[in-house]
Amino acid sequence: MATSPAEPTLRDEAATAMTRLRTRSLTMRFEGLVALDAVDLEVRPGAIHGLIGPNGAGKTTLFNVVTGYHRPTSGTIELDGRRIDGLLRHEIAEAGVSRTFQNIRLFGAMNVIENVLVGRHSKIAVAGVELAGRMRPHSDHRALAAVRALPSAPRAMLHGLLEVAGAIAQPPRVRQTERAAIEHCAELLQFVGLVGREHELANNLSYGDQRRLELARALATDPALLLLDEPTAGMNPAESASVVRLVRRIRDELGVTVLLIEHAMSVVMGVCERITVLDYGRKIAEGTPAEIQGNAAVIEAYLGTSAAQGGGRAAPRA
Amino acid sequence: MRELQEGADRRLRAWRGRAAGGAALAAQPWHAARERLRAAEERTRLPIANVLVLVVALSLPFWPVIDSRWLRILVLVGIFVVLGLGLNIVVGYAGLLDLGFVAFFATGAYTYAILSSPASPALQADLNWWLAIPVVLAVGSVVGVLLGLPVLPLRGDYLAIVTLGFGEIVRILLLNVVGLTNGAQGLFNIPRPEFAGWVLEALDHWYWVLVLASFILAFAVGRMRASRMGRAWEAIREDEDVAAGMGVNTVKYKLLAFAMGAAIGAFGGLVFAGFFTFVNPSSFTLLVSINVLSIVVIGGMGSTPGVVLGALILIGLPEVLQFDETSRLLSLFNPIVPFADTSLWGRQLASARFIVFGLMLVAVMALRPQGIFAAARPQVRLPRASGR
Amino acid sequence: MFWFDQLINGLTIGSVYALIALGYTLVYGILQMINFAHGEVFMLGAFAGYFVLLAVGGDDLGGATIIPAIVLAMFVAALASSSAAVVIERIAYRPLRNAPRLAPLISAIGVSVALQNIVLRMTGGRDRVYPRIFPGGSFGFGDFQVGYIQAFLIVASVLMMAALLVFIQRTRTGRAMRAVAENRATASLMGIDVDRTIVTTFVVGAALAGVAGVLQGLWIPNIRGTMGFLPGIKAFTAAVVGGIGSVPGAMVGGFFLGLTETVGRELLSAIPGVHLPNEWSDVIAFSLLVLVLVFRPTGIFGERVSRRA
Amino acid sequence: MRASSRGVRWGWLAAVAALATLVAVACGDDGGGTPAAKSAQPGFKVVAVNKGQPIKIGISSILTGDLQALGIPIAQAAELAGKGVTVEGFSIAFERKDDTCSPEGGTSAAQQLINAGVVAVVGPVCSSSVIASQPLYEKAGITTVSPSSTAVASTKPAGRGVYKTFFRVTYNDAIQGPALANFAQNQLKAKSAYVVFFNDAYGQGLKDEFQKAFKGTVAGSEGFEKGATNFASIVTNIQNKKPDVVFFSGFFAEAVPFITQLREKGITTPFLSADGVRDEQFIKLAGKHAEGAYLSLPSPKLAGSVYDKFKADYKAAYQKEADTSPFTAESFDASTVIINAIKKVAQKDGDNLKIDLAKLQDAIAKSETTGAIGKIKFDAKGDNAGGETPVTFFVVKNGKFEAFKG
Q: Of D171, D173, D167, D170, which is closest to residue D198 (Cα–Cα)?
């Protein structure tokens, strides 16, 4: 059980000893289409790790699988040595994985501070008491999930009742944690550079600010690992540079490990310490920026001189 | 590299410590000012406007124009305000389009009726109305969860049609499970609320009880909305997938939305049964669901004053159209309008009141598609020293 | 032959549902809105056809004259329903094209309530009865008998559905409809007149519903102001079961629902200890709807991804 | 604690108050019947009608929606009875209110009528409105005479005594149901019956009474909803079960499509139904299929000089036949009963007129009237006990209702 803020020392110790994120032969198939093909990925703690590859290489799919939006067909995912594949999306978030989206997805009709507060959700007390355990109606099959959830139903109902009671009565502990959350979020907004816009609706922000808000919201979950899906997409060079600075600060000042997808090579080569290259769902290369830049397979994947090498591209397709 | 990692983890620890305790924050220059402003905001949690509305609402029975006909309609409006508050959670906050809200209304009304009506064929238990409140709230929320479970994976209009189906199923069950519900004959002579000899029967008393109940419910619903639960609901409404990715247990909060809406809807049913002392399945048709949804949308989704206004318009207006005052008012136009006897309009309007009702829905939507009280105010505001 | 009869009953009811469901699904596909007033468009078609049949001779029609009379009734009904739909679209929906999602739904409910009550007021709440001009009786082998009117209804609806499919797949307008359904903005950039295409969609859906009104009137003669409401809800259910937005889905969903209410209920009743008389048909239909959607959240022919805002 | 400012205290206050209420209620007097269960003495008053003003009689009927076809003629027939009538020089005026055939509408209409100062009410038309609104009328001391409420519960409320302010002209299901069952057994020699019922209070009630009294087997019992037009599935079942009689408990609106589909399927099983179908519209709309249908009417007759005059007057006033809709004659009679009682109890008081509502109730309770439907007098429960043979049967022959002679 890794409810992150409760036992930070434990994870930090584990982190020093292990890799932050490790996937082993991670495979994802969609009705005959192989989106990820036995991908082994290792992200070290405190790294800024890049994930690149041509369009349709399976980068975003990898993010979706790691964060629980898709269940992998096979393979395992570990965070700090603990299996997280098979967990529900909110459980993975609580375990310490957070993300942003390629096409910005904010809660448009909520204001800026509320958007960030949603990320802070699990850090706010339910009521005056702590509750152990949680409902886990999770299975391959929906009907089965419901059956499996049955034994925990009374506890889930009690939990729900407490949540409602806590919301209405607002005992001191709820207020305290709520206030702490608001303060934390305010600070995060300052961190990403959105001071003064707290009360604006997310929909009314400029594109760049929306990206920043998404970052703040992702950081609000206290992640150990942050997945950034094309954080500089659609930005001019100046904006892009400031985001790069922000990503560095996230790692340096907050100590959050970052795995990022990026198309702009200048960004990737400038900010990442290690880079993994995917093509047609397979890992074709991994190494430092310098190593990647000289890698023949990578060049071929990007430039598409496929005929000469043969097998490389055609095989995973079938 | 190793060094870098250790450094980062140290900083991470420090950051976490600060976040939990908030001690480091006190050093911020703007912090003190923010605290002051927050205290001021908390003092005005009960804005004067609310008190004013409450006083005006409570004083209505003393107004000379408000006679028992008005009060009777206001009580019916009050019941629909309660229903609207319930559905507002489901549709307005959590964004779950529910076209079968009548199921919960019926659940509440029949739970009390079965447990108290002398005509009840089974389970008659002389249950006191006031004691029935927790029973009905509990039964309502359980039914809400049970009906919510199978529709969890559904979105948008698929959800709408399935909930509509549930509403119809519940009504048909009420009709056909005669051994429990007495079928189409319904359950009658349901006892009125009684408390230590005081019987809730007089219209003005009913009205006051409903005003107070609505205020308590509105307060409770407002609190829910302003809590992390309310934010979770809104996040689900805005983007369910992202909400889950931010640590919100979407299953739990969707079920909570159904349960809360259902409990409040069931309470509305309890009031209905206690007030009319008679329930039969023909009071629990799809039309009720449609009416409540229209109230919520016309008033402005997610807005509590909107619910009140919506109920006044949609429930009150068709009744008021057949009041004698309406005819008299219309006959005042006689000198202005040529070639027509406006005094006859009253009766025509009364018999065409549902046409008026329908056209009004179209007109209100055309003029204010967001509802009358559009775009509800965000809940969390951050007082700032800079004071934008 | 009991089961065969119930099968034919199911198919007949199902074809009416399917014809109405097509209107729901077409409009939904293009506007993502539930056209709640569609049941009333069906009702208006039935009334238009009734007046036509009355005007050309009513019960006195006989022999070969019924064929042009019925064709004329269907044509006028389609025309009347379409005009009503165009007016409704213009007044109640177009101003709300960019409004919040529930606004057009409420507006549609308003139109539905108003139309029902206008017709009820005009008819004094009394039923009108279609002239009984269609020859009664049946054909078939031995116990397997099909009523002429039921056969006519099923065949006519299947033909119309086939025509619709051809229209959508093969014609320029049909392609435009599909393009607008796919992506309104892109279609507009490609030079498609979006407003006109939307109106066309309403017209096509309403024409089908209007003809369905006449067909039902020929079969079950009583028509009244509220006659559209229940079939409207059922047809909407059928459209959702089939996968709303999908044209074949609406057809399959309609027949599926019709058969569930008849054959399905009797099949369940055949289980010893289970007794499900007619008053339970809606329970069965809606329970089935829940089951289908729990296992296929977007209906039988629905798109795979269940994301819709 | 600064954090627990007003908001928190309010929350706890509400919780404590709720708890205290619960405890108090739990400790409170739970014994003894609840007040609603007791019979109350009606709140009779004396109404004064000023000079120049009319005497007001209320009408609670359904005037909108698809039942307006039933409700508007009922209102018109009631108004007909008061046309040109004067009591001590005071004319009579009717106040129509729409009760939408629902508990909510029934009470709302009742309140409007009570406030309008009516002395008595014709209606409510539907049993659900009656049951919900009677407590109000009782409290106001206003007597109601319903032309058409057939539910047994209207005059036999569970858990309390009868409402003294309620009377009805029509006969209830408990009389009609057994008579229909007897008719099926004895006249039609039916050993099995298939029951088709409208799934509302009227249809279910009558069907229950029929099934209770029918000694043969009930081959099947199927309900349908308001506005149903499609009976294909039921008809196929009937064809399969081959019953001796089909009993239809409902109104003509659904009976027409039902019998049409039944006969067009070639099923000639006798069709038996009750007052809800005994309507000229049934014959007119079902045409040749209506031939041979048996129908009961829980009133001695629709004949005689009063009925003929009513029919003629109705046609003159509204340009349509009175018997195109059920319960018009009953409504005319209900109105007549009230007007006669007013004539008896109204007293001149200077220029004004005084009507003692207690006396009015008494006069209605004791009245004996020969009305359009025959003799009307009320028993202690408020049911019409005037008929010597309360239920008569008709058969449709050559497009006309003919009295059945066994």
A: D173
